[in-house]
């Protein structure tokens, strides 16, 4: 006999090419919820209209639902059957009908956090991508747009606040219960449906739109949290004004609500008129949030707000088009944040994130184009590629078109597709027509995965110099051969001899596999400033002497290029050292000193520029990653810079920190620089550093300084370390977001015993697998700690695999996100690679594994 329960389900692969419009549309939906934390009854009435010429059964997806009864036009209907978990209703030759189904769901036992679930006694929904089918039977695909009427009834004391999309049109009381009726006038796909019921308090404000309409704004949180919503409210108002000014997009309802929940799989969700947020992207005050947290709140509030146009008014035809809304919306939020703060610093941060999260993905077994061709579980495709590389693709089009023509293109896109479910192709076509440009070759960015590499060489003909560029896109799974891409490459060239000769900022459009760009006349080899502003998301291979990089780090007129030059100098030195060669430490020290001299004028930029590249990024440059050598050499260089510039670092720390309430770029930069200075000083190993760090920790007037000092202490083994961790824990044990930091700094620690420390922290009474933020703060931080995760005995791999196995039955989405670090086995030595594969195999051998984890683990082994 076969035991079916332990036979892994054969994964079903969905292909982009198989798209077909649905035979039925659903112009109107009425939902009635009888709310309960343990049990909620849902009655759904779908007004369906047939679009196919011939009769076709109505396929309604379900996930974990049972249908007791189906009614059609008010009468019990027997022509239905279950197909697995889906409901198929045969409507004969009807062309329209009202189909009613009742379901009962159990929010309190919904640990996946998809569909309707309970978080701290409050009920909330998460429907993207396919969570609506866990609430009621529905086609649950984004090209089915409906007007929703949502009625909900619940106990007044448990659920004093009842919210859904759109406007509340009626409410009333009935004994201990009360009810509310919400109507959303805008047709929307099911993934944008939302409902919240609970005991919440609101921060209210308003915004007057460009046409003079007053919009009521509400940020809903648990009692006691309302004082920490001010930054989010301001970010919302700023975003609304920015989208009007920059894209001409006005908000379209009289009400905009945001609800913060502590148990949430992602950052936030753009449900129409009712955004639902992870608390970490709403709650912030100087005592509990760092500057990075404040910027995160601003960026994510903007991101979700911008989705109202790029995502909601114009949505996606199918999930293969996900980057249509996500790439574009990330691009929009990046530019918003740049406008709110320092554009060069924002660009540096965005590129650093792209290189840390997306480049490795593009170089590994999970590589996929920004518009994938197939998937098994769509939740696995909310990736850095879809989001961040997707944003880079939009940015390149904006660069190629220039601001006016880009705006014409986006106007055309929004106007032409308003109210529709569109495709990436629709977007590119709007860019072509609005921008009057041919993007035929550019479309390859949507088709080809992998980070293109540009190999550069300078050629000389007398005093005439030119640049030879060769382009290659590496093979990725399923795509062995690639064609060259079209891309904008910004460059400039400078004479280093003081003659002043330059090639000013030039935009070159690359398209061929090999291309020659004339640079002009220079008496000797010019310093080349290339991919300025990171105009194309590529890797540039270009041999340059340390002196040339140092010169650019000091003189380039593009701040991003200055940053790049110094980073490249550091990277060359570190890669050489980690590979057993000697790097030019003195050149790095001199360049850091030179950059540091500009700290007073622009501390934010300087803090970014003098930071050493991460261990992971150093590893990405090596043929085989050697985590121990990288850690050793990076710490050694940090110490050398620390010692050589000790008085400079001490001087940075001797000044007063900017007040924590000052959130200007300059103040944030000042604090960031102080954190960097403290880290360099700590690397020197001088005896007074723990006391100095402890002093900063205890005297800090805000979380940025406090966390930076705590993180520095956490790397060492001083008495101050234990003391500070204890104080921090006692002070913030009741604040989950701050307690996350306590777990995180310990998982980030450079101490050799971090694997054991993480193992012990997983047993801490405050650790729980039920809260995704907590899981990420411990295990997510740990798997990003390269030398710890790759500890030679494989204990780090085992720890992550054990987590995946324990978490998968509860929350497959979050479990699957932990797998990619294990999939990078090809990049490491044989012994590590074998252990990583063995853990992936052990995961795959678990009975009853989710589709999410099965897809990621099996693809990671290939
Ligand atoms: N669409 C959300 C965003 O990018 C992300 C998200 C995806 C949230 C899936 C929840 C579930 O803003
Ligand atoms: Zn988004």
TrEMBL record:
<dbReference type="GO" id="GO:0008270">
    <property type="term" value="F:zinc ion binding"/>
</dbReference>
<dbReference type="InterPro" id="IPR035414">
    <property type="entry name" value="Peptidase_M1_pepN_Ig-like"/>
</dbReference>
<keyword id="KW-0645">Protease</keyword>
<comment type="similarity">
    <text>Belongs to the peptidase M1 family.</text>
</comment>
<feature type="domain" description="Peptidase M1 alanyl aminopeptidase Ig-like fold">
    <location>
        <begin position="450"/>
        <end position="542"/>
    </location>
</feature>
<feature type="domain" description="Peptidase M1 alanyl aminopeptidase C-terminal">
    <location>
        <begin position="548"/>
        <end position="862"/>
    </location>
</feature>
<dbReference type="InterPro" id="IPR037144">
    <property type="entry name" value="Peptidase_M1_pepN_C_sf"/>
</dbReference>
<dbReference type="InterPro" id="IPR001930">
    <property type="entry name" value="Peptidase_M1"/>
</dbReference>
<dbReference type="InterPro" id="IPR014782">
    <property type="entry name" value="Peptidase_M1_dom"/>
</dbReference>
<dbReference type="InterPro" id="IPR012779">
    <property type="entry name" value="Peptidase_M1_pepN"/>
</dbReference>
<dbReference type="InterPro" id="IPR024601">
    <property type="entry name" value="Peptidase_M1_pepN_C"/>
</dbReference>
<keyword id="KW-0031">Aminopeptidase</keyword>
<dbReference type="Pfam" id="PF17432">
    <property type="entry name" value="DUF3458_C"/>
</dbReference>
<feature type="domain" description="Aminopeptidase N-like N-terminal">
    <location>
        <begin position="110"/>
        <end position="192"/>
    </location>
</feature>
<protein>
    <recommendedName>
        <fullName>Aminopeptidase N</fullName>
        <ecNumber>3.4.11.2</ecNumber>
    </recommendedName>
</protein>
<dbReference type="InterPro" id="IPR042097">
    <property type="entry name" value="Aminopeptidase_N-like_N_sf"/>
</dbReference>
<keyword id="KW-0862">Zinc</keyword>
<dbReference type="GO" id="GO:0008237">
    <property type="term" value="F:metallopeptidase activity"/>
</dbReference>
<dbReference type="Pfam" id="PF01433">
    <property type="entry name" value="Peptidase_M1"/>
</dbReference>
<dbReference type="GO" id="GO:0016285">
    <property type="term" value="F:alanyl aminopeptidase activity"/>
</dbReference>
<dbReference type="InterPro" id="IPR038438">
    <property type="entry name" value="PepN_Ig-like_sf"/>
</dbReference>
<keyword id="KW-0378">Hydrolase</keyword>
<dbReference type="GO" id="GO:0006508">
    <property type="term" value="P:proteolysis"/>
</dbReference>
<dbReference type="Pfam" id="PF11940">
    <property type="entry name" value="DUF3458"/>
</dbReference>
<dbReference type="InterPro" id="IPR027268">
    <property type="entry name" value="Peptidase_M4/M1_CTD_sf"/>
</dbReference>
<dbReference type="Pfam" id="PF17900">
    <property type="entry name" value="Peptidase_M1_N"/>
</dbReference>
<dbReference type="InterPro" id="IPR045357">
    <property type="entry name" value="Aminopeptidase_N-like_N"/>
</dbReference>
<keyword id="KW-0482">Metalloprotease</keyword>
<feature type="domain" description="Peptidase M1 membrane alanine aminopeptidase">
    <location>
        <begin position="232"/>
        <end position="445"/>
    </location>
</feature>
<keyword id="KW-0479">Metal-binding</keyword>
């Amino acid at each position: 006999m076969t035991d079916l329960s332990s036979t892994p389900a054969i994964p079903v692969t969905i292909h982009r090419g198989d798209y077909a419009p649905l035979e039925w549309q659903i112009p109107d939906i009425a939902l009635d919820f009888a709310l309960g934390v343990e049990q909620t009854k849902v009655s759904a009435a779908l007004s369906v209209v047939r679009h196919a010429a011939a009769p076709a059964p109505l396929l309604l997806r379900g996930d974990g639902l049972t249908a007791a009864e189906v009614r059609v036009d008010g009468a019990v209907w027997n022509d239905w059957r279950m197909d697995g978990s889906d409901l198929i209703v045969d409507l004969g030759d009807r062309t329209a009908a009202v189909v009613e189904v009742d379901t009962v769901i159990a929010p309190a036992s919904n640990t996946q956090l998809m569909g309707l679930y309970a978080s701290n006694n409050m009920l909330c929904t998460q429907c993207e991508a396919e969570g609506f089918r866990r609430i009621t039977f529905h086609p649950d695909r984004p090209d089915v747009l409906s007007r929703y009427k949502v009625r909900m009834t619940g106990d007044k004391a448990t659920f004093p606040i009842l919210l859904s999309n759109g406007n509340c049109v009626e409410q009333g009381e009935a004994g201990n219960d009360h009810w509310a009726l919400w109507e959303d006038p805008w047709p929307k796909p099911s993934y944008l449906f939302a409902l919240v019921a609970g005991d919440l308090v609101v921060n209210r404000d308003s915004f007057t739109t460009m046409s003079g309409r007053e919009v009521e704004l509400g940020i809903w949180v648990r009692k006691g949290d309302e004082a920490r919503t001010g930054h989010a409210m301001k970010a919302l108002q700023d975003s609304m004004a920015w989208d009007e000014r920059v894209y001409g997009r006005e908000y379209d309802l009289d009400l905009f609500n945001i609800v913060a929940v502590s148990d949430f799989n992602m950052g936030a969700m753009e449900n129409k008129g009712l955004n639902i947020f992870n608390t970490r992207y709403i709650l912030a005050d100087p005592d509990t949030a760092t500057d990075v947290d404040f910027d995160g709140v601003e960026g994510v509030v903007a991101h979700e707000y911008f989705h109202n146009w790029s995502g909601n008014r114009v949505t996606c035809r199918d999930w293969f088009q996900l980057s249509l809304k996500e790439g574009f919306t990330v691009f929009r939020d990046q530019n918003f944040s740049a406008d709110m703060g320092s554009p060069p610093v924002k660009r540096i941060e965005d590129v650093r994130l792209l290189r840390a999260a997306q480049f490795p993905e593009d170089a590994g077994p999970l590589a996929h184009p920004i518009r994938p061709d197939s998937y098994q579980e769509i939740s696995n495709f909310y990736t850095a590629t879809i989001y961040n590389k997707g944003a880079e693709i939009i940015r390149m089009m904006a660069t190629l078109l220039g601001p006016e023509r880009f705006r014409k293109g986006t106007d055309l896109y929004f106007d032409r597709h308003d109210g529709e479910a569109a495709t990436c192709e629709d977007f590119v076509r709007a860019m072509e027509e609005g921008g009057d440009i041919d993007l035929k070759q550019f479309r390859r960015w949507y088709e080809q995965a992998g980070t293109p590499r540009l190999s550069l060489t300078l050629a000389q003909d007398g005093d005439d110099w030119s640049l030879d560029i060769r382009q290659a896109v590496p093979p990725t799974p399923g795509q062995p051969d690639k064609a060259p891409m079209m891309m904008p490459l910004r460059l400039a060239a400078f004479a280093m001899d003081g003659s002043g000769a330059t090639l000013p900022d030039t935009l070159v459009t690359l398209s061929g596999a090999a291309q020659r760009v004339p640079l002009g006349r220079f008496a000797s080899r010019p310093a080349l400033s290339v991919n300025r502003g990171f105009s194309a998301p590529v890797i540039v291979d270009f041999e340059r002497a340390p002196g040339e990089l140092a010169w650019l780090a000091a003189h380039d007129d593009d701040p991003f290029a200055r940053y790049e030059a110094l980073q490249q100098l550091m990277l060359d030195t570190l890669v050489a050292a980690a590979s057993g060669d000697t790097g030019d430490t003195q050149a790095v020290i001199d360049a850091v000193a030179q950059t540091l001299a500009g700290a007073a004028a622009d501390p934010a930029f300087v803090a970014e520029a003098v930071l050493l590249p991460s261990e992971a990024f150093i590893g990405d440059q090596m043929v085989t990653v050697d985590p121990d050598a990288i850690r050793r050499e990076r710490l050694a260089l940090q110490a050398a810079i620390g010692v050589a510039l000790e008085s400079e670092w001490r001087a940075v720390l001797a000044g007063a920190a900017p007040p924590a309430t000052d959130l200007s770029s300059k103040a944030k930069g000042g604090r960031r620089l102080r954190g960097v200075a403290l880290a360099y000083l700590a690397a020197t190993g001088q005896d007074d550093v723990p006391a100095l760090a402890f002093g900063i920790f205890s005297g800090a007037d805000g979380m940025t300084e406090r966390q930076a000092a705590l993180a520095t202490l956490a790397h060492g083994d001083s008495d101050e370390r234990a003391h500070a961790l204890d104080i921090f824990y006692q002070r913030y044990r009741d604040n989950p977001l701050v307690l996350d930091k306590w777990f995180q700094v310990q998982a980030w620690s450079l101490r050799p015993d971090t694997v054991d420390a993480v193992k012990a922290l997983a047993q801490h009474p405050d650790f729980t697998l039920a809260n995704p933020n907590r899981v990420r703060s411990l295990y997510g931080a740990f798997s990003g700690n390269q030398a710890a995760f790759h500890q030679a005995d494989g204990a780090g791999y085992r720890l992550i695999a054990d987590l995946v196995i324990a978490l998968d039955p509860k929350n497959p989405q979050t479990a699957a996100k932990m797998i990619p670090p294990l999939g990078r086995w090809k990049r490491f030595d044989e012994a590590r690679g074998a252990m990583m594969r063995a853990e992936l195999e052990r995961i795959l051998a678990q009975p009853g594994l989710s589709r999410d984890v099965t897809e990621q683990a099996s693809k990671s082994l290939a």
